Amino acid sequence: MKAHSPHSGPHQPAFRRQEPDARRLALIEACARVLARLGAAGASVRAIAVEAGVSPGLVSHYFSGIEALVAATYAHVEDKVNEAIDEAVNAAGQNPRARLDAFVMASFAPAIADPQLLATWIAFWSLVTARPAIAAQHDEQYSGSRARLEALLGDCGVPAERQRRDAIAVSALVDGLWLELCLSPGCFSAEEAGAIARRFLDTLI
Question: Which top-rank group of organisms is this from (predicted)?
């Protein structure tokens, strides 16, 4: 899920002729790579500056501190995942069950069931209990995802009084399958994960 920024030549400034938004994005992508490789404990301004090929001062120019950069990176990674899921749902057409299946199955696609993306998420999760801003982002992300799932379940005829709990159950199943698929991809396939999830959806609808 991460995008790689171009490498500059050995004697060229890393951000020559780049627009400010591109510079900010390159720092966010560098932060994501550092988080995946070193974890939250290794994500310092210096480490991210080295990864991006810039001075620590340039990082400080765009972000007030490491916490602000990590928060921006969390939001960026979340947006990329949501974009991939939205694309899958939109490609499924107008059939409610097809759209629900697409929402669930998107988590098992290679772009999301990716060990490096998992490493980045683990770094974020490790900060949830320690940093209120990250905890708030996590709660907002989970609530938004669950609300989308509730709406898809409702479109499939699940009664309103069941939608919240059913969405929590589906989310927990999908998250567990996604986690195991990232950690141990040889144990079962994305197709098997999808079949398990669809069978569970059959019991709800």
Answer: Bacteria
Domain count, the chain: 1
Here the CATH number for the domain that contains residue 159 is: 1.10.357.10
**Burial environment of residue 25 by CB neighbours within 10 A (0 to 12, 13 to 18, 19 or more):** middle
What would the two tokens of residue 193 be?
Answer: 């994960």
Residues 151-164: b if buried by 16+ CB within 10 A, e if exposed: bbbbebebeeeebe
34 within 8 A of 117, measured Cβ to Cβ: no
Burial per residue of 35-63, b for 16 or more beta-carbon CB atoms within 10 angstroms, e otherwise: bbebebeebebebbbebbbbeeebbeebb
Angle between helices 66-91 and 132-155 (to 10 degrees): 10
pLDDT tens digits along 19-29? 558 889 999 99
User: pTM for this one?
Assistant: 0.80
Give residue 100's domain range: 76-204
Determine, yes or no, domain membership for 157: yes
